[in-house]
Amino acid sequence: MSVGPTGQSGPTGPGGPTGTPPAAAPPDPYAPVRTRGYPKLLLTAAVIGFPVCAIAFGFLAVVHALEPLLYVDLPRALGFAGTPLWWPLPVLALAGLLTGLAIRYLPGNGGHEPADGLALGGPPLLSALPGVALAALASLAFGAVLGPEAPLIALGGGLAAAAARLTWRGTDAAGVVAMVGSAGSFAAISALLGSPLLGAFLLMEVAGLAGPLLGVVLVPGLLASGIGALVFTGLGDWTGLGTYSLALHDVPRAAEPTVPEFGWALVIGVAAACAGTGIRWLARWLKARVIRHRVPATVLMGLVVGALAVGFSAATGKPAQELLFSGQSALGTLFHDSAGYSMAALLLLLLGKGLAYAVSLSAFRGGPIFPSLFLGAAGGVVLSHLPGLSLTPAFAMGVGALAVAMLRLPMTSVLMATLLMGRSGLTVMPLVIVAVVVGYVVTLRLTPAPAAPGRPAPAPSAA
């Protein structure tokens, strides 16, 4: 026996004290930070954060300006005393035509398919960005039930990556372009969500980052998102348009969680998982038929969304716009004016907007986050009328549970629901965690497992 260099005894033999070749030292995961190029990468991310977030702010400003223009100002300019009941039908049909043409004929397929969830497939090429922007504008501003987060991720990442390609040369250019593109997406989505921390968790869970590499990759994005938050705040104050960030104001302080509320957390988690699974199934079933005849099918889907809005307005007497759009700006109204909704109106809103959400996911372009938050919140408002559950925790649990059912991102869903509730967020967080965990597990159990590699999926039964 002999003592090896590590101080452990073992038999000697060829190749070293143990008879095997000496193991190579593990690579240093923080080596990129120690290179000379990393400070340059951080500077690039910081500089790119300014124009990327300014463009993201402009995109959101255009979307929000077009909404009242199309649904309030245009009908009056055409001689109507107000917005006609049937007005959403031609507007959504036009939205379907413009979106379908952008997807069919412009590079980039109009961005990613929202029915497939929120995904990061790398920053798009610069040539694809006009199609992404046009398809998103035609969808979001005209009333499709989708959010702006996916187009912002694509626009921010594509612009940042294009700038990096122009300014960075060398053997590591491909890796730098990918990292700067991620930083651009990070900056755009963080400013929209109102928190760089929330944006970090979102992109971390979507990209599957973990370990020491997580910090190396996220630091440029954190820097860019911090700069972007300043840009959003500055432009919002200067223009008077606000920041378009996810936030509720004047949330009443919640009481400490009770045992019945933990029981309701289980119920809300299961209900949200079932609802989210149904919405995703319907969206994918419709999507498989839309892609066969993209333009006419997208027009038809627009008419379906418009018909749902008309039916909701006719049945409740409320504006059709309450069923349309992402629901981002309506979350505060839903929370503070929940007493103004009858139970029947709330149930019709849930059903109609849920169906419009699935239809919009199948054909239009946008993100899945904000409609899921609104639908979860509306479901929480409905349940808050039942014994043992107050409004604030019901609202927060509904938001978190349906978000995780649609996104399958548990950490992000907990943070969104918690930060949305402001000062009461920490109080209701234990309830939100239970609802999100239950919703996440039940959603995964309801989702069919993917087919094994090399083995076709089983054929559907003829029965």
From TrEMBL:
<feature type="transmembrane region" description="Helical">
    <location>
        <begin position="295"/>
        <end position="315"/>
    </location>
</feature>
<keyword id="KW-0869">Chloride channel</keyword>
<protein>
    <submittedName>
        <fullName>Chloride channel protein</fullName>
    </submittedName>
</protein>
<keyword id="KW-0812">Transmembrane</keyword>
<keyword id="KW-0472">Membrane</keyword>
<feature type="transmembrane region" description="Helical">
    <location>
        <begin position="426"/>
        <end position="446"/>
    </location>
</feature>
<keyword id="KW-0407">Ion channel</keyword>
<feature type="transmembrane region" description="Helical">
    <location>
        <begin position="262"/>
        <end position="283"/>
    </location>
</feature>
<dbReference type="InterPro" id="IPR001807">
    <property type="entry name" value="ClC"/>
</dbReference>
<feature type="transmembrane region" description="Helical">
    <location>
        <begin position="339"/>
        <end position="357"/>
    </location>
</feature>
<keyword id="KW-1133">Transmembrane helix</keyword>
<dbReference type="InterPro" id="IPR014743">
    <property type="entry name" value="Cl-channel_core"/>
</dbReference>
<feature type="transmembrane region" description="Helical">
    <location>
        <begin position="150"/>
        <end position="168"/>
    </location>
</feature>
<feature type="compositionally biased region" description="Pro residues">
    <location>
        <begin position="19"/>
        <end position="30"/>
    </location>
</feature>
<keyword id="KW-0813">Transport</keyword>
<keyword id="KW-0406">Ion transport</keyword>
<dbReference type="InterPro" id="IPR050368">
    <property type="entry name" value="ClC-type_chloride_channel"/>
</dbReference>
<feature type="transmembrane region" description="Helical">
    <location>
        <begin position="200"/>
        <end position="219"/>
    </location>
</feature>
<feature type="transmembrane region" description="Helical">
    <location>
        <begin position="175"/>
        <end position="194"/>
    </location>
</feature>
<feature type="transmembrane region" description="Helical">
    <location>
        <begin position="85"/>
        <end position="106"/>
    </location>
</feature>
<feature type="transmembrane region" description="Helical">
    <location>
        <begin position="118"/>
        <end position="144"/>
    </location>
</feature>
<feature type="region of interest" description="Disordered">
    <location>
        <begin position="1"/>
        <end position="30"/>
    </location>
</feature>
<feature type="transmembrane region" description="Helical">
    <location>
        <begin position="41"/>
        <end position="65"/>
    </location>
</feature>
<feature type="transmembrane region" description="Helical">
    <location>
        <begin position="369"/>
        <end position="388"/>
    </location>
</feature>
<feature type="transmembrane region" description="Helical">
    <location>
        <begin position="394"/>
        <end position="419"/>
    </location>
</feature>
<keyword id="KW-0868">Chloride</keyword>
<dbReference type="Pfam" id="PF00654">
    <property type="entry name" value="Voltage_CLC"/>
</dbReference>
<feature type="transmembrane region" description="Helical">
    <location>
        <begin position="226"/>
        <end position="247"/>
    </location>
</feature>
